[in-house]
């Protein structure tokens, strides 16, 4: 058996005093073998990224490793001076980051930035450096390496930039590659390409890969071994097959159980329900203004969009970034005026109504946004924000307050919390408040615009459940906008797939997932990670064992 | 839920071993940070003293700032061997220096406050409208800002005072009309940022009228910028008034203005440097305290709500 | 690109026009200009003659149009005091002011950028505190008073440099320090804040993950990005400083355009004042334009589409 490339023993990293816990990482031990992909999984705040940064020696100054050892190349990394650690970085260990859009310096060409690796760590002549850089660009499958070489980062897409970062990391054939959520910020199809690339590179190079992620689908796609972390501790580790299919620790089970199933929860038929919302021929074009050196351009964000939703139905609108789904939403809630087309709500075409005429219809369509931190005014109490709607539509404040207390109970929050401010709530709680706020005006249609995308899986599950419950209880029509096919499959009745402003596919969830007709839909479905993994039914597993840390969710 | 009172002393909360407390409201958290901010405390303290002196000037000295006593000219202050009767000495016309300094604080503070208020109103209305509406409104406001920035402030102010006379009203209005640019620039940018946040969209979707959105959702969230710029421009106006008066084109003698006092002392620069030092130091500390107050406010009202 | 520059130029002309119209109406409507020329106690027929000669009885709009037409031909009117073309008088004085402005901005940049960078690299260190001190004091100190204090200390007590005049390079030392120090706090703060922001940027983490030497991370990757807004601020400050040189020039009796402005105001020489306001605003407009171009030249995101 070969020796591990990296071996972490009993690592503890302290948090600054006054935090909610004393250690960011506590008593952590793990090993990574050559050619092995070890996934570290956990929700936000679990300490997974801290582990990666400690190994790289890139921890923020406030965090200090207080005990343990990290053996790499026969040396304890924690005992190295910053200069010695710096010499290992890039040459023996390299890193790929989450945000490809900001990971490259905007002032230099990508060729220059890759070549820096050779400049710093080798004494190769300039011509050789350039040749190697071009070869790297080719290896990470970037088209036209010569052109890419002299491009600036802003001229490349997110996926292309991530390839540049990977090329940079591979430049000197490091023994250890650390990838911190490298595909989280990417579209589904780009993610699939990057994951594929990483698997391929693992074959060609001998590096061991530490892959930090929160997404079990990605784990299923790529991992050899899995380490599950919670609150800075490892709660479970083992082979991917074992952990994914037979998780032992209650926390792992909880996480896996929260992964949305690809199958839909069976529902009553919607036959005979009245049509609630109909959109026809909706068009929207944007003119992007040019700058000193760039001509303006025109973006056709919505092209002849049309669909109908019935009362009690959940319609999923699926698409990658730039598909026009956000523009569609803005036109529906009339933050933007559509250029053409009709929007009927209960038989009334409101698309061309003026602001004034629209006012009474505004409450019919309400929305829950993606960012739980941006969608509540930090300077107003929750109660004040909840009664905003009814008061605007001429309601009585005291009555509205009573209804707000009612709704707080429905979204499972303490009604007494109405006089608190948003900063006193967690992300999941805020999303529930936003749902309550939307429901205050008794809308007919609720738009959930990526409403669960920013939440941890376990929280996501709760909010999804709540949304379904409310829909059934109040007979709401829901438009569910998402880029996440799994979530869409689970909560929607019917689906629309959008690409570049157009609807390219529509049908029931089973139709779209089972027999997709459009090439783009097929491509999207094929790009989903971890398709071979069937999420196990944790209730059928033997009782939880091997409790290494504290179980349960706080 | 427990309500932690805002007046609770920071020392107490620090000494406690930080048990799980009920989360603070934004205002409470801000007051706590303010009480721990040394610059802010210093600024508030010094400014408080100057305000006190300005308000209570008649109680703090028995002299009038205008009464000349030609027999008691150029008396040095006590620390340079003068007499306690005029503890800061007297000027070239025998006027009590302390009385002129104390009454001069009124002029400085009044001009600072009034001019900054005028420019705050102009600048923030323009900035918020430009930031909220964008498009043509923004273009028009940006043009106005450019025009304003292209006008040399000191030169225009001097010319106006020379043509219209150096009354307090003229000085306040000309400074108020010239110093609104920073309000407009900063509030425009801040409003653009807030406008993009989803709670503004949510309020619109919930049927809030435009004035209501501006008043309830935009203004409170750009208020911290407004206050910070207000302190900066107040300090700016005070310095400019002093400079105008120094050049002989601000408020006119015998009004006790600190700038005028420095200007009058300039003639005796060689022999009696304290004549310019004392009002200069007073001016410096007033402006310093206002700036530190502003910086402190910026620090303690830094974006909250986002973790 | 060309279209953009044309647009930008058009805007600049529009701004200059508005400024000139504003200042013209302000200056020539604030009283009877004929009385200003003839003096308070002049005889009625003298005033009438002057009104006749300069055409003050015409509507202001006509007078402004008249001024504008000659301004377009490069004639900014004649000084009432010297009875010489204003362009000639201002041209004579502008050299001193430009020299002072350039020296001052160099002084400010040389002081502010190294200190700002050092302060950002080691927050809360001694140098950070020193930088903070310099900028806080610089913001609060009235420049006319600071000038006087420098004169007392360096000219009168120590006798190192002359207190007033503009005949040798030594005369420029104190004014440069005063005017430069006036511009320092803003530049220093922006450098420090910009560096702090850039140092926490993702691409700096990438550079460190590549194992680059700290010096290279700092200068090649961080400073290059942080310096862009500083350069454009400096250009704008330069525009401000020319207009603000009036105070400094009058303290040090430096015979530049600012000093001329002060003299003209006390002499009621409206054509010179009007011309000076225009000239100073043109400089501001020019420098902001240069700032934009520099910005675009330094930032590939603006340069390469």
From TrEMBL, chain A:
InterPro entries in UniProt: AAA+_ATPase (IPR003593), ABC_transp_ATP-bind (IPR050319), ABC_transporter-like_ATP-bd (IPR003439), ABC_transporter-like_CS (IPR017871), Oligopep_ABC_C (IPR013563), P-loop_NTPase (IPR027417)
Domain of life of the organism encoding this protein: Bacteria
SMART domains: AAA
GO function terms (MF aspect): ATP binding
Bilayer topology annotation: Peripheral membrane protein
Protein localization: Cell inner membrane
Source species taxonomy: Bacteria, Pseudomonadati, Pseudomonadota, Alphaproteobacteria, Rhodobacterales
UniProt keyword annotations, A-Z: ATP-binding, Nucleotide-binding, Transport
Entries under Gene3D superfamilies matching the protein: P-loop containing nucleotide triphosphate hydrolases
Species the sequence originates in: Salipiger mangrovisoli
UniProt protein name: ABC transporter ATP-binding protein
Domain ABC transporter: 6-256, 277-525
CDD domains referenced in this protein's UniProt entry, alphabetically: ABC_NikE_OppD_transporters (cd03257)
Transport as UniProt keyword: yes
Pfam families, A to Z: ABC_tran, oligo_HPY
TrEMBL record, chain B:
Keywords carried by this UniProt record: Cell membrane, Membrane, Transmembrane, Transmembrane helix, Transport
Domain of life: Bacteria
Membrane topology, record value: Multi-pass membrane protein
Record flagged with keyword Membrane: yes
Positions of transmembrane segments: 40-60, 107-133, 153-179, 227-249, 269-288
Subcellular location: Cell membrane
Region (Disordered) residue spans: 1-25
Matches recorded under InterPro entries: BP-dependent_transpt_permease, MetI-like, MetI-like_sf, OppC_N
UniProt key word Transport: yes
One Pfam match: BPD_transp_1
Biased composition annotated in UniProt, kind: Polar residues: 1-12
Domain ABC transmembrane type-1: residue ranges: 105-294
Gene3D superfamilies referenced in this protein's UniProt entry, alphabetically: MetI-like
The family this protein is said to belong to: Belongs to the binding-protein-dependent transport system permease family.
Name of the protein: ABC transporter permease
Natural source organism: Salipiger mangrovisoli
Automatic annotation (TrEMBL), chain C:
Family under the similarity heading: Belongs to the binding-protein-dependent transport system permease family.
Transmembrane segments: 100-121, 133-156, 168-188, 226-252, 272-294
Domain ABC transmembrane type-1: 94-291
Cell membrane listed as a keyword: yes
Natural source organism: Salipiger mangrovisoli
CDD domains tied to this protein: TM_PBP2
InterPro entries: BPD_transp_1_N, MetI-like, MetI-like_sf
Topological type in the membrane: Multi-pass membrane protein
UniProt keyword list: Cell membrane, Membrane, Transmembrane, Transmembrane helix, Transport
Pfam families, per database record: BPD_transp_1 (PF00528), BPD_transp_1_N (PF19300)
Protein name per Swiss-Prot or TrEMBL: ABC transporter permease
Location (main, coarse): membrane
Subcellular location, record wording: Cell membrane
SUPFAM superfamilies reported for this sequence: MetI-like
């Amino acid at each position: 058996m070969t020796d591990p490339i990296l071996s972490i023993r009993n690592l503890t990293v302290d948090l600054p005093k006054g935090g909610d816990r004393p250690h960011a990482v506590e008593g952590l031990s793990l090993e990574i073998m050559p050619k092995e992909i070890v996934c570290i999984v956990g929700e936000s705040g679990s300490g997974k990224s801290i582990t990666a940064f400690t190994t790289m020696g890139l921890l923020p100054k406030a965090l200090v490793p207080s005990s343990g050892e990290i053996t790499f190349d026969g040396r304890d990394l924690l005992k190295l001076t910053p200069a010695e650690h710096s010499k290992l970085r890039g040459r023996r260990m390299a890193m790929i980051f989450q945000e490809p859009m900001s990971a490259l310096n905007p002032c230099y060409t990508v060729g220059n930035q890759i070549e820096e690796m050779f400049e710093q760590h080798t004494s190769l002549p300039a011509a050789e450096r350039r040749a190697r850089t071009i070869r790297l660009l080719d290896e990470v499958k970037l088209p036209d390496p010569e052109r890419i070489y002299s491009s600036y980062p802003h001229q490349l897409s997110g996926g292309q930039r991530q390839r540049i970062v990977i090329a940079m990391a591979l430049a000197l054939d490091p023994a250890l590659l650390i990838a911190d959520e490298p595909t989280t910020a990417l579209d589904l199809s780009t993610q699939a390409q990057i994951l594929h690339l990483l698997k391929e590179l693992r074959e060609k190079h001998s590096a061991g890969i530490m892959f930090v992620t929160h997404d079990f689908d990605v784990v299923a796609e790529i991992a050899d071994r899995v380490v599950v972390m919670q609150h800075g501790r490892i709660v479970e580790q083992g082979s991917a097959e074992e952990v994914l299919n037979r998780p032992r620790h209650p926390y792992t089970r909880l996480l896996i159980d929260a992964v949305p199933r690809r199958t839909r929860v069976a529902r009553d038929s919607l036959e005979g329900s009245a049509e609630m919302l109909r959109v026809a021929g909706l068009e929207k074009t944007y003119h992007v203004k040019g700058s000193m050196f760039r001509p303006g351009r025109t973006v056709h964000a919505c092209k002849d969009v049309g669909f109908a939703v019935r009362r009690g139905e959940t319609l999923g609108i699926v698409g990658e970034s730039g598909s026009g789904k956000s523009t569609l939403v803005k036109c529906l809630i009339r933050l933007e005026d559509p250029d053409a087309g009709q929007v009927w709500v209960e038989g009334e075409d409101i698309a061309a109504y003026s602001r004034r005429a629209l006012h009474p219809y505004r409450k019919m369509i309400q929305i829950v946004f993606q960012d739980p931190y941006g969608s509540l005014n930090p300077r107003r109490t929750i109660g004040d924000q909840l009664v905003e709607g009814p008061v605007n539509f001429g309601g009585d404040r005291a009555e509205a307050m009573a209804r707000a207390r009612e709704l707080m109970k429905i979204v499972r929050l303490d009604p007494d919390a109405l006089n608190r401010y948003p900063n006193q709530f967690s992300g999941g709680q805020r999303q529930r408040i936003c749902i309550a706020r939307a429901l205050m005006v008794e809308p007919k249609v609720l738009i959930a615009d990526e409403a669960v995308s920013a939440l941890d899986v376990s929280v996501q599950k709760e909010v999804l459940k709540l949304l379904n419950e409310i829909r059934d209880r109040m007979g709401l029509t829901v438009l569910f906008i998402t880029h996440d096919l799994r979530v869409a499959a689970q909560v929607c009745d019917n689906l629309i797939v959008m690409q570049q402003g157009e609807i390219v596919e529509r049908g029931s969830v089973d139709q779209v997932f089972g027999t997709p007709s459009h090439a783009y839909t097929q491509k999207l479905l094929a790009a989903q990670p971890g398709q071979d993994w069937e999420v196990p039914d944790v209730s059928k597993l033997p009782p939880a064992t091997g409790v290494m840390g504290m179980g349960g969710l706080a | 839920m427990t309500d932690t009172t805002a007046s609770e002393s920071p020392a107490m909360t620090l000494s406690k071993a930080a048990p799980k407390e009920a989360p603070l409201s934004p205002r409470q958290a801000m007051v706590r940070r303010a009480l721990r901010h040394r610059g802010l405390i210093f600024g508030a303290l010094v400014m408080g003293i100057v305000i006190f002196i300005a308000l209570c000037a008649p109680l703090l000295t028995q002299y009038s700032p205008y009464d000349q006593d030609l027999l008691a000219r150029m008396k040095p202050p006590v620390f340079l061997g003068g007499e306690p009767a005029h503890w800061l000495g007297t000027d070239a016309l025998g006027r009590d220096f302390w009385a002129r300094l104390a009454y001069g604080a009124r002029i400085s503070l009044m001009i600072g406050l009034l001019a900054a208020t005028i420019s705050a109103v102009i600048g923030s209305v323009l900035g918020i409208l430009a930031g909220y509406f964008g498009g043509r409104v923004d273009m028009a406001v940006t043009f106005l800002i450019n025009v304003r920035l292209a006008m040399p402030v000191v030169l225009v102010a001097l010319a106006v005072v020379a043509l219209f006379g150096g009354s307090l009203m003229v000085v306040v209005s000309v400074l108020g009309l010239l110093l609104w640019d920073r309000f407009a620039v900063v509030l425009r940018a801040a409003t653009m940022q807030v406008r993009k946040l989803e709670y503004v969209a949510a309020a619109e979707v919930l049927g809030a009228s435009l004035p209501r959105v501006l008043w309830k959702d935009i203004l409170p969230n750009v208020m911290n910028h407004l206050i910070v710029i207000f302190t900066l421009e107040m300090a700016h106006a005070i310095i400019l008034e002093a400079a105008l008066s120094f050049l002989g084109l601000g408020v006119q003698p015998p009004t006790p203005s600190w700038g005028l006092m420095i200007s009058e002392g300039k003639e005796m620069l060689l022999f009696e440097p304290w004549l310019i030092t004392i009002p200069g130091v007073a001016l410096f500390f007033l402006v310093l305290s206002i700036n530190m107050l502003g910086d402190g406010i910026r620090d303690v009202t830094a974006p909250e709500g986002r973790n | 690109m060309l279209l953009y520059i044309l647009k930008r130029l058009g805007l600049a002309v529009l701004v200059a026009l508005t400024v000139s119209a504003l200042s013209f109406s302000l200056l020539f409507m604030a009283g009877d200009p004929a009385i200003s020329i003839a003096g308070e106690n002049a005889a009625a027929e003298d005033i009438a003659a002057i009104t006749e000669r300069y055409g003050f009885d015409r509507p202001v709009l006509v007078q402004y149009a008249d001024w504008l037409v000659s301004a377009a031909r490069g004639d900014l009117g004649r000084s009432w005091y010297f009875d010489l073309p204003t362009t000639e008088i201002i041209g004579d004085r502008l050299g001193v002011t430009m020299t002072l402005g350039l020296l001052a901005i160099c002084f400010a940049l040389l002081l502010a950028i190294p200190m700002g960078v050092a302060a950002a690299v080691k927050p809360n260190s001694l140098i950070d505190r020193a930088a903070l001190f310099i900028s806080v004091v610089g913001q609060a100190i009235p420049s006319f008073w600071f000038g006087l204090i420098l004169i007392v200390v360096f000219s009168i007590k120590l006798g190192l440099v002359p207190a007033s005049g503009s005949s040798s390079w030594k005369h420029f030392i104190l004014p440069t320090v005063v005017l430069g120090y006036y511009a320092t706090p803003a530049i220093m703060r922006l450098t420090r804040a910009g560096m702090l922001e850039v140092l926490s940027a993702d691409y700096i983490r990438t550079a460190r993950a590549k194992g680059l030497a700290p010096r290279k991370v700092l200068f090649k990757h961080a400073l290059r990005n942080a310096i862009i807004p500083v350069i454009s601020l400096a250009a704008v400050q330069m525009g401000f400083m020319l207009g603000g040189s009036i105070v400094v020039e009058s303290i040090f009796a430096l015979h530049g355009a600012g000093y001329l402005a002060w003299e003209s105001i006390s002499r009621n020489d409206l054509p010179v004042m009007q011309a000076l306001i225009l000239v100073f605003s043109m400089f501001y407009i020019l420098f902001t334009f240069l700032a934009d171009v520099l910005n675009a030249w330094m930032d590939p995101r603006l340069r390469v589409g």
